[in-house]
Amino acid sequence: MKTAVLLNLDFRKGFCYIKRMSQEQPKKQPAPEYVSIKQAEETEKQRQETLGKMRQRISKVAEKLKNEGYKFEMEETDEYLIKTEDRTTHLLKLDSFPLESKDKLRISVSLEEMIEASIRNPKENSYAAVLELRKQKNESNN
User: Which of 69, 70, 65 is nearest to 85 (CA)?
Assistant: First the structure.
């Protein structure tokens, strides 16, 4: 793919400003994929089963945290909304999240860990809260 660089000269107050604008060649659009009704129904059924399993796991975590005395409200829309006293956390319905912090390693975090960390430590950033949660779990297992 060739890229052409266009120079746009702009004269203001006796100075010449050069603006670089790149123009890419238009891409060919791929042909649309067609799916049979049966395939679409099977895919939707699998998606619903996956969401059902996720809801069960999340409800177990929420019940555990409520039994431990944490005060929060959880709402499910196209994402999970976790409302604590002064904060609302929005979490997408994903099995795992990549988390990274400046100058630190990238870690993969499950949805359950994200929910638990955001409820237990609502004032900390997600990365620090997840690391603290993992540290507590390791200490309790040893």
Answer: 70
Q: What span, in angstroms and rounded, lies between the C-alpha atoms of 12 and 65?
A: 63
Q: Is residue 136 part of a domain?
A: yes
User: What is the model's pTM?
Assistant: 0.65
Q: If you ran DSSP here, which 8-state letter would residue 124 be given?
A: S
Structural domains of the chain, count: 1
Residue identified by tokens 């979490």 is 91
Looking at per-residue pLDDT, the higher value among 13 and 40 belongs to 40
Range of the domain at 77: 39-141
Do the domain assignments include residue 18? no
DSSP conformation class of 90:
E
Angstrom distance (rounded) from CA 97 to CA 79: 13
